[in-house]
Amino acid sequence: MPAREAGQAHGGADADRLGAHGWQASSPLWALALLLLGLLATAATARHQWIQQQRQSGLLQQALANAAQARMRQPLDGAAMVLRSMQTVFLASEGMDQQEFAHYQQNLRPHQLSQGYVLTAFAQREASPDPSGAGTYRYQFVAPLEGNEVLLGFDISRQPENLRALQLARDRDLPTASAPFQLMQFQGAEGARGITVRLPVYSRGTVPLTVADRRAREIGALAVSLRLEPMITRALQGRVLEYMHVHIRDLDAAAGQELVFASAEAAPTLPAQVRQVDFGGRRWEMRLWPRRDTTEWGQLRAILVAGTAISVLLALLLWSQMTTRRRAVELGRRMSERFGESEARFRTLNELLPALVLLANGDGSRITYANQAARELLGDVVDSPLRALFADSRFCEDAIAAATGDSGWRSQEAMLAPARGEPFWTNASLAQVEVEGVPHLLMIATDTSAQRAMTERLHYQATHDELTGVLNRREFERLLREALAGRDDAAAAMPFALLYFDLDQFKLVNDLSGHAAGDQLLVQLARAMRAELGPGSLLARLGGDEFGVLAPGVDLAQAEALAERIRRSIERHIFRWRERTYTLSASIGLVMVERKGSTLKDLLAWADSACYQAKESGRNRVCTYREDAASTHRIGEMEWANRLRGALEQGHLLLDYQELVALDPAPGEGVHVELLLRMRDPAGGVILPGAFIGAAERYGLMPAVDRWVIHTALANFSRLHPCGSELRSCSINLSGASVEDDGLADFILDAVAAFGVQPQRLCFEITETVAVRDLRRVAQVMERLRAAGCRIALDDFGAGMSSFGYLKNLPVDNIKIDGSFVRDLGREPVSRIIVDAVTRIGHERKLLVLAEWVEEESVLSVLRELGVDYAQGFLLHRPERVVFQR
pLDDT tens for residues 535-575? Predict the structure, then answer.
């Protein structure tokens, strides 16, 4: 080699070494820079998290302090309400004794209005012989009397705190609270401190407006006694006392007696929230501070530790990659110097690849090379034929032919079967290459077993019920569609059967033993049902306790036998859970699919109808669907139920109003209406409720419909009638299912409060048959609504022929006579007698009497003659759409 070329070669080698050393020297600096950057990002994240936690903690403390302030007023306001009610009772009563006093207190339910309630008492004022004296106030009535007998005859003037509150209440005619003092009936007991809320009782007459008049007309004083500790702890129980320490001080108390309540002895070390409760002439200061530092140090610590660890790992990874590259370059240089032959270079470069790399001779009869990954998965395959690796040798022959031909063979799924071990799936490519001028076959394959297993698992989860392992509803319906399509396409397709069933009384297991027991029962029953299925039959869970079976290639007798076996297997199954034992049954609906043209929707509707028929027939039986009038009616009801659900969701329900006309109107009578439900037809028409109410009741939709009517009517009360806000009253019908809903009264009263409608302008109509179905529950709902000011009407009165017996037990305001008696009033003497009797009894009980279905003048004349108060019907007013929906 010439000297110049040798020098250049030497210089190039030196340059390579210098470059490698320069890269090696800079590697730690890059890694250190990445580490510092990661630590800074971690610190910024931790600081942001700490700020957010502090802000959230402050918002929580403010919310709890506001809630505590509001809750503290509730028992005091409740006591004031009791006193105002009793003040009214004294003014209205001709005479009061201990028994009547206790009776009124029991009706007011003061324990529910005021936590910490002890008693309500009345002290009679007796003038002092000394004109300058304040007189005496001795307790005359106490309720409850049991445990408080010591107060009878006790003079309030012996308790200065009580006397000052009494005098201040007398002069202001406002509820006034005393300073805390020891309640004498609890002397020596723990937590005996309490307060009294006072209100005066004046003699009858006009309301006294001056202090002098109030003092002159005072006849006594009412008091509600409250124990401080239970009053405060019950008012603040829950999140307030769980998260906060509370100190309450009476700012108007004497020095040394300011502390009313303390949930902790130590003074606050964290910032406190301060609120003030003003009531009855006293000021209570509430100081609230968190029980502990709410900062989530564990989360911050986790962020710091994780961020530091990630930063260190990234820096080490960068350093490792930089040094590895240097080592790889050095290794490549050495390998290129050591191996000059093409075959050796090929083997070295592919040895460390994760993919399987194999080299065989041109016809694939002998493998000449296998890299490390191939040897680990396939064993020692060198000198073996290539086709021996494939689970399907014919597949290998086709691949070799394609690789050596013009088309080539690329990336196909192939299963390899090693001599030792389990077969596995690969994504393989086979190509023809030349090594030193000689044709060879190069095969590269990637193990896809894990990916394939994951895909199969995801497919299984998408098509099977997670709890029971049987098919889910989506997959079951897909297979049903395929079965229906197969029947329509094939000339002589075999019939198949669909079984649709749900478990009877399954809800009882969940209610008594919990959902874990219910889940375990479903798993056991699914296993028992699978054991009864024939080959090719499919079991699926369609809902909570609903299952379906698809049985292909069976006739009616075989399908009924299969359904009966499943029913018996469920009936025989004994489920034990802890100390309880359960046996269940199933109602099964069977549909035979023997004709073409059926749709999935038809099939499911028929099966559901048959299952419903099994339930109506007594449960625990199999019913086969047949096209008769009853089945058609049930399917029709299902269609109406679905249409009603859609109308509720899409806002297609309508309201009409019909006026109720007074037959002997008083001046300023105003307008009274009853709301009537309608549904908009997709074609633009109007559907009357007779078409869909039956379906709504059967499928449990009436509570949702009634709540829609109530909410819509109250939200648009001033836009129901053209008279606007002058509308006197509005009547709304309630179904039996709604009245039996425990939350109905709360829903109505919440809506009344939310929309500001006066309760006296609302009348709720309940049919007689609903009222007598559960008299106690209906009476409770009526009493709650009437107590709020709403009116109650008993609709269709007289239809049940037991009305007179129930009337005296139901708290109603109006009676609406059933239209069947009113319609024939002019022609049927018995109807006249019944209407006359209902009117007389209603007026005797101070109730308004209404008549519906008035369509003739002769009927209207008889109603006036009999003294009926209101009438309703097409003769007087035909229903019209409410104003806001026109």
Answer: 889 999 998 899 999 999 899 999 999 999 999 999 999 99
Rounded CA-CA distance 119/502 in Å is 55
Please report which confidence band the pLDDT of residue 751 belongs to, taking 50, 70 and 90 as the band edges. very high
pTM of the model: 0.40
Residue from 706, 600, 707, 689 nearest 640 by CA: 689
> Residue 822: which CATH number?
3.20.20.450
d(CA 521, CA 506): 9
pLDDT of residue 343: 54
Query: How many domains does the chain divide into?
Result: 4
**Through-space distance between the first and last CA atoms of the chain, rounded to whole angstroms:** 106
State the pLDDT confidence band at 339, using cuts at 50, 70 and 90: very low
CA–CA gap between residue 326 and residue 151 (Å, rounded): 98
How many Å apart are CA 328 and CA 335, to the nearest integer? 10
The answer to whether residue 183 sits within a structural domain is yes
**CATH of residue 355:** 3.30.450.20
- Compute, in degrees rounded to 10, the torsion defined by CA atoms 138, 139, 141, 146: -150
Per-residue b or e along 708-734, where b marks 16 or more CB atoms closer than 10 Å to that residue's CB? bbbbbbbeebeebbeeeeebebbbbbb
427 and 500 together in one domain? no
pLDDT at 256 over 80: no
* CATH code, domain carrying 547: 3.30.70.270
* 546 lies in the same domain as 682: no
In a domain, 58, yes or no: no
SS3 state at 132: coil
Identity of the residue numbered 276 = Q
724 DSSP 8-state letter: G
Q: Provide φ and ψ at 150, rounded to 5°.
A: -65, -20
Q: Same structural domain for residues 798 and 853?
A: yes
Determine contact, residues 468/526, Cβ cutoff 8 Å.
yes
Which range among 374-383, 540-549, 767-776 has the greatest average pLDDT? 540-549
In a domain, 612, yes or no: yes
Residue 267 DSSP label? P
* Packed helices 473-489 and 449-463: angle between N→C axes, nearest 10 degrees: 90
Burial zone of 64 (CB within 10 Å; 0-12 exposed, 13-18 middle, 19+ buried): buried
Report in angstroms the alpha-carbon separations of 178 from 116, 201, 223, 233, 253: 15, 17, 10, 19, 10
Residue numbers of the domain that contains 270: 71-289
Write the DSSP symbol of residue 494: P
* Percent of the chain clearing pLDDT 70 (strictly above): 87
| Segment 831-840, tens digit of pLDDT | 888 899 889 9
pLDDT band at 712 (very low <50, low <70, confident <90, very high): very high
Q: What are phi and psi of 468, to 5 degrees?
A: -95, -20
List the Cα angle 697/815/768 in 5-degree steps: 30
- Both 660 and 778 in one domain: the answer is yes
Residues 432 and 539 in one domain: no
Q: Which of 15-29, 362-376, 394-408, 770-784 ranks highest by mean pLDDT?
A: 362-376
- Does 818 lie in the same domain as 728? yes
Same domain, residue pair 736 and 876: yes
